[in-house]
Structures are given as C-alpha cells and as structure tokens.
Amino acid sequence: MNALLAQFVAESRDLIEAASKSLLDLEQNAEDKEQIDQLFRAVHTIKGAAGLFEFSPLTKTVHAGEDLLDTIRAGDVPFTSDVADVLLEMLDRCVDWLDQVEAQEALNDDAEAIGNALSQRLRALIDAPGIGAIPELSEAAPEDTALPWPEDVPALPVAGAVTLVTYTPSENAFFSGDDPLRTVQSTPGLVWSKIVPPKAWPASDDLDPFLLHIGFRLVSTAPQDELEAHFSYVSDEVTYEVIVSAGEGSTEGAIDEGLRAMAEQLLVSQRSLLASDQASPAEDHCTASVAVVLQRVAQAVSIELTPELDSDNPRATIEQWMTLLGAALRKPEPKAAPVQTVEEEPAEEPETAKQTASPTRANSHLRVSSERIDALMNLAGELIVAKNAMPFLAQKAETMDETGELVREIKAQHNTINRISEELQSAIMQIRMVPMSTILSRFNRLVRDMSRKLGKEIQYVVEGEDTEADKAIVDELAEPIVHLIRNSIDHGLEDPVTREASDKPRVGTIRVKAYQLEESVVLEVLDDGKGIDVDAVIAKALERGLVDQDKVNNMAPADALQLVFLPGLSTKNEVSDLSGRGVGMDAVASMVRRIGGNISIFSEKGRGTKITMKLPLSMAVQRLMMVEIGDGLYGVPIDRVVESQKIKSSSIRRHRNAEMVVLRDRLIPLVRMRSLFACPDVEDNDILSVMVVDVDGRESGLIVDKFHPGVDAIIKPMTGVLSSYQCYSGTALLGDGSILLALNLSEIIECQYH
Questions:
Q1: Which of these ranges, 70-74, 83-87, 384-388, 515-519, has the smallest mean pLDDT?
Q2: What span, in angstroms and rounded, lies between the C-alpha atoms of 404 and 397?
Q3: How many angstroms separate the CA atoms of 538 and 541, rounded?
Q4: N vs C: which end of the chain shows fewer Cβ within 10 Å?
Q5: Chain-centre distance of CA 429, in angstroms?
Q6: In the predicted model, is pLDDT for residue 353 greater than 50?
Q7: Taking a C-beta distance cutoff of 8 angstroms, is the pair 184, 193 a contact?
C-alpha cells in the first residue's frame, strides 16, 4: 500500500471513531449543536479524502450521509434513534470497506450494490424543502409503461436515445473545491442544459453568497459510463434517465426559458447603459464592459457573435451583436408533441450487511507529541557522546601501567551510559504511552446496541480516561473489556420494570474506572445490577466437578467468587448469543494473565459487581526480582512481590498435607520451589528464604534458595518445545550472557493447589 493510501485509511479510522462518539452523544442530547457540527465535519472530511481515490461506493455513501447531516444541522430533519441507526450502519460499512482497502487496495465486487442501497436509505431520510429535497423512493414503473418527455426539456436536434442528467450539488460545494458550473459545461456530449432554481429563495438578509442554492438539468449524447466517469467525484449528487428523441427541433429551441429571460434582461440593461450619458464615445472602458457582457450572454445561449469586434469603431460592432442576440432570443414556434420514453426497471435493492461490532479496530499508528521526540533525540545525542569515549579509554588502557585509575574511569563511564540508557528507556516508554480513552470510548456503541436489543436502559460512564498505559497493553485490553461489559449487560443489569420493583432507578449504570497505582494501571468495571449469587456459583462448580466439597468448606466467600474464572462455569441456564458468564470470564482471566496482570472480583447480591484488573504499565520492559532455585536463576515480577522473609523451618505448620506459616497475623500457604522443579534434595536448613507473592488477590510464599537483586529485563515469549511449559512466561538475557526464566506465578500456584 502506498503512503498516501495508508494515511487515508489511518486518518479515516480516527474520523470514524470521532463520528461514532459524536453520534452516540447526540442520542443523549439531540440539540447539542457542537456535536452535530463535529459529526458533520468528520463525515465531510472522510468524503473529501475518499474523493482522491477510485472508491466510488465509499464516496457516494459518505456523501449521502453528509447531505443527511446537513439537513439535520439546518433543522429540516429531526435527529432520532432511527436516523442514528442508519448513520451508525454507514460508519460500520465504512470500517468494513477500509478493511478491504487495507487488505487488497480495492473494494469487493459487491461494494457498488451495497453502497447504492445504503445511499438510497440515507437520502430517503432527507425531507427538506427546496432544491436539496430528495423524493421518497418509489417502486419502478412496469417496463410497458412509457414515461412522458420531461416538460422542461425542449425538443432537441438529436435522434435516438440520450441521457437526461439531474445534478444537485451540495450547498457547500465551493468549500470542498467543486465548481458545479464548470462541471456542467465540460460534460461530454452536452446538447442542452438548464439551471434549476430553488422552490423558494432565502430572504435577502439570510442569503449566504457562499452557499449554492441551485441545481442543473442537462441532456447529453455521451454513453452513460462516460457520464458516470465525468461525474465520479459527485456521483451521489447525480441521477441519470434515458430518454428518446425523434430528432425534431432546432438549435434555436434549445435555449432554456429561464436562461432566455435572463439574457433578454441583460440585453436591455446593456442597451440602456450605452444610451446613457455615462457611455460617451470617449469612455472606452464602458464600451469594452458592454462587449464582454454580450460575449458572455452569447456563450451562455450557444450563439456565435459576428463580425469580430472592430477596435476602431466598437459601438458599431456592439449594435450588430445586439441585433443578432435579439433575433436569436425570440421564442420559436411551438413544436410537435414530445416523444414518450420507457424507463428501465431499476435493479432490486440489495440488503446491506448489519454490523454490530465496534466501529473501529486497533490502529497501528501512534500520535506522538514533538516534545517527546525532542527528548528522545537529545538522549540519543548523549549516548553517542558516551559511546565515543570508549575508544579513548581502550587506548589509555594500552599505555597505562596502573589499572586503578582506569577502573575508576570505566566505572564512571558505565554510570554515565547507565543513566542515559535508563532515561532513553523512559523516553521510549513515554512515546508508547496512550490514554485509555482510545479504547474506552469505543464501548458506547456496544452498550447502546445491546441495551436496545435486550430492552434495557443503560448508561455508560467512563472515569480516568486520560490515564496512560503502554499501547500494547491498551490494545490487549479491548477484548477483555468487551467480555466484561457484555456480561454486565446480559447477566448483571436488570430490565427497567425489575429495577423499579427493587427500588432502583430505571436506568442501570456500567462504570469503567482507570487509574495508575505505582508501576501498574488499574481498570475497574462496575455495574449496579443484581450482583452474583455466591451459593449458585458454588453449586454450579460442585455440579460440574470443578471443585470438591472439602475445598468449598474451607473457602471464604471472597474466594468462592473467584470460581467464576474457572473454565466452563456459567450460572445462567439459558444460552445467550450475547455472553455467557463462565466461558467469557475464563477468557478474560486468561487474557489478563497473559499480559502479566491479575484479576479479581467483588460482588454484593442485589447491589452490583466490581471486577478489578491490575496490569503492568508496559509489556516491553519489566522489573524482575531474581531468585535462585537449584542451579538456575528465575525472575518474579516485582509488582507481584509483597515481601521477602527469612523464616525458621520450625515455624512451618501443616494443614491437610499443605504447609503454612503465619506472617504478620496472616496465614500464608507455602510452595517449595525445589520440589516443584524436581531439583535434588538438600540438607535441611533451619533458615528458609520465603518470597511472599500476590496472585489474583491470594498470597502465597515461595520457598527459594537465595534472593538476588532486581533487574530490568525484556521478556521474550517461549517458543518451540518450551512454549508448552505454562509455568514460564518467557525468557530474558542477562548481562553475562546467561538466561533468566520468568515465572508464571498464576500457573505455579494453580499447580500447587491441584
């Protein structure tokens, strides 16, 4: 894909997202003038950019949407949910077409038919007076019914079939670079044209000279495909009809009556000007002005002026021109009755695909402020300076006998490079940081469509949308949040009647909160629905054999709620095409853990549910605490580490074949990592190293051999045979060339408990 087309696709996706947001905001407040203007500008910009490429269905459809929005701005068409449905369908279709352009640099073969049908539906909603009004769609006339020759079209000096073109330019044509008059005059095969005034001109005080209020009718002998190519940039403003002429008439009869009257008025005014005192023979500029006006009139009515203008005696030539024009502008004798024609039956309107997905997908582009780029460039310059110092140190080492001073200089240079590297890493991280609003704002559409489908009244509230996180993290969050919102709508929130019976507001609320906590970003999804029945969750888990009764007996209510994340657990009896709590929640937990986060749930029956996801700020570089187990080094995400302790082996207690220890009045289950990794046994040690970690809200103690300092590492996912070992989340390369294995704590704790 060339750079211009790639930029068009990326910018159009952003504009569609902005248009979707404005459209959904308008449903809450249809009188919001600012949102209407923003929506119109977004659609108008997409239309203008699409005109640069040969994507006629896209251009035609968006132009029809723009015209509809224009009538809404003017107050001629009210904004309703039905109008919003069609406009949202238009945006969905545009997203689908952009996907096709991105994949194959062209639209599918069915795009033309789909675009025509959707354009007609959009234009059918327009019901404004004047030239901009679009008639309602009607059924095609039977093939054996002849259409009368249009009354406003005179008999023409052509024989056979010709095409009648009706061209209704947008009133904002001048602002988009269009020149409608030039477009009409340059029409191939043009034999007749007419200006169509509006049914009612605006009052003189309200008349905006920069808005276009007229339309055009013209007849051409060119083939229709040639005409369509000529009007391709304004294809949605043009209609075509095939009419048949018997060849009767003359050039004289081809002058439009409105144009004839205007030309006659101009002729009278120019004669008056020449006869006035202002037009003395000495005032050549006045005579020249009259000559120019007459030439323009003759050009408009297709009359050739003869003889040529005499520079020595221009008045004489002008008098001859006026006589010639006067004769040509006289009305011709009435002609014979026009020939009737048969209009071809239009093709059946195809159905447009209904899309209910989010209107945008993840964008691979980043918008970065110039300040962040400047900071990155400055750091790159410092790094080059530090790098250039290394050859001088090497040269100095060759000539020195004492190494002490050299060691000090090398350490100082290392500290400099280390500082620059850390700042460079931080600067790159800042470039990758994007606000959570890039995904959270998309779900307004999801809530709207699902609530309408289920007959529920729901408001969607976002807090902390300016909270920033790594773009990779933000993009990965889109799918889990979709599952959570679907579950809240389908399972959590009640219908309006049930809510009122429970003394709740008719309108339920889904609230999404994002905030930064230390080196993590926290995302909460809350609803004020009926909550989760813990007893039902436990019963379903027992029924499906996901837990045993002994474990349930020792399980706190908060731990029982976490059972909803088990694979295959669902508390809903009916099958729904919208969501399924259990399968969806298991998928959410898997996706969150895959990106190094943890998830927990809190619910109160009758009050609502809160699901909390705690995620790292970045997936690129992670801070790991190193531990030694056997002969290997392993890394634990430092944000999972609660504390590190040395404990006496005598303080360990056993409960149901599990080892426990009490730390700070907390009962912590222990995991012997050497046993888990099948390392050789060592002699009993009175002092044990225990690292307490938090996994999905549960604390566990890992018994390791030694603690090592923390390290910043770039975690690479496991590949090949090792990818099947779920206890490892990836590998990192250390400075001495050794390999560090990053532990997947969720899998390790799960294995220990089972």
A1: 384-388
A2: 11
A3: 5
A4: C
A5: 24
A6: no
A7: yes
Encode pLDDT of 585-616 as tens digits: 777 887 787 777 788 888 888 888 999 988 88
Q: Residues 94-114: what's their mean pLDDT?
A: 85
Which amino acid is residue 140, in one-letter code?
A: A
DSSP state of 491: I
- The candidate with the shortest Cα–Cα distance to 184, out of 196, 176, 172, 202, is 196
Q: Is 502 buried (19+), middle (13-18) or exposed (0-12) by CB count in 10 A?
A: exposed
pTM: 0.54
Cα 141 from Cα 72, distance rounded (Å): 31
8 Å CB contact between 211 and 171: yes
Cα–Cα nearest to 475, from 443, 514, 434, 504: 434
Task: Tell whether omega for the bond before 307 is within 30 degrees of 0, i.e. cis.
Answer: yes
H helix runs in 29-152, sequence order: 33-50, 56-73, 81-104, 111-124
* Residue 570 in tokens: 């669902």
Phi, psi of 579 (to 5 degrees): -165, 170
- Distance in angstroms (rounded) separating the CA atoms of residues 232 and 255: 27
Closest CA to 669 of 647, 701, 697: 701
Count Cα neighbours of 94 within 13 Å in the Cβ-side half-sphere.
Answer: 35
Residue whose tokens read 């005080």: 205
Q: Which residue has the higher pLDDT, 569 or 88?
A: 88
Residue pair 609/526 in contact by the 8 Å Cβ criterion:
yes
- CA 264, 270, 276, 281 torsion-angle sign: negative
pLDDT in tens, 644-676: 888 888 888 887 778 888 888 888 888 888 888
pLDDT tens across 449-491, in order?
Answer: 888 888 888 888 888 888 888 887 888 888 888 888 888 888 8
Tokens of 88: 């949202």
Closest CA to 695 of 623, 540, 589, 564: 589
The pLDDT, as a whole number, for residue 513 is: 92
Do the Cβ atoms of 638 and 625 come closer than 8 Å? yes
Listed in sequence order, the DSSP H helices in 198-336 are 224-230, 257-275, 284-300, 314-328
Which tokens sit at 333? Answer: 């004798």
Amino acid at 325: L
